[in-house]
Design brief:
alpha/beta, TIM Barrel, eight-stranded parallel β-barrel, two-stranded antiparallel sheet, 12 strands
Amino acid sequence: MRSLLFVPADSPRKLDKALSCGADALILDLEDSVAAGGKDGARRNALAFLREHGGDADGPRLFVRVNAIDTAFSEGDLDVVMTGAPAGIVLPKAAGGVDIGVLGARLAVREALHGLEDGATAIVAIATETAAALFRLGTYARSSARLAALAWGAEDLSASVGASATRADGAWTEPYRLARSLCLFASAAAEVDAIDTVHADFRDLDGLARECEAAARDGFAGKLAIHPDQVPVINEAFVPSPEAVAEAERIVAAFAEAGDAGVIALNGRMLDRPHLKAAERLLARASRIGPKADTL
């Protein structure tokens, strides 16, 4: 998934509009964008949307961001939206692999109750929203087969540590660069996708493009979005270029021709097994989403 767009579930108009924006996934939000008094209505809207559009083969994957696992709203969120068979659940303020195990067990109960395939509901965890969560990023590995991705976030983390700002001169300050890097490493250790955080200034598409370019360069597979206008920029940035795909194909072919070799020479460069693994991952991603087109 390249682009994952948050949509407030208390707004049917925004939900309908989001369908045509081209996002790979929509995140129907029951958490931060919905006031406490609007939770029940948002749940009903999310369920109606899941039932109407969840089976659209050509549409985006539909995820639901529930409330944090230790809140009074979490179980009620699942009770309602799991009857609509979402593709996955986005867990905010995740505190490590234990939370993923707890959520996985709750999902398994509801899958059985509603006749859904066991394990069909994926989990995306937002893994850096509290100070304590940073110390548990290494616990996601082998926590659950449901875990599909880890995302990082800055705003809740800044509140957790009492920071007055998350950026200086347009760049992340040091605590948030650290959180970003740790999320990337934790995702690699857990063998799941790493998802970059939102670019809050949704009118700044040039800044968004620069941020996407850096994220794709560093190893992130996609980015969270908060406005439909951000989606095309994100999608373009996270599609491998034809040149990158061709180079990866050459590396894979060269290793195949060399048999069991640990190191090969290709066009004057010495390449070892990590280069092969990176090439294989790029080709796998390209096969899922297609090569970058000139029309993007």
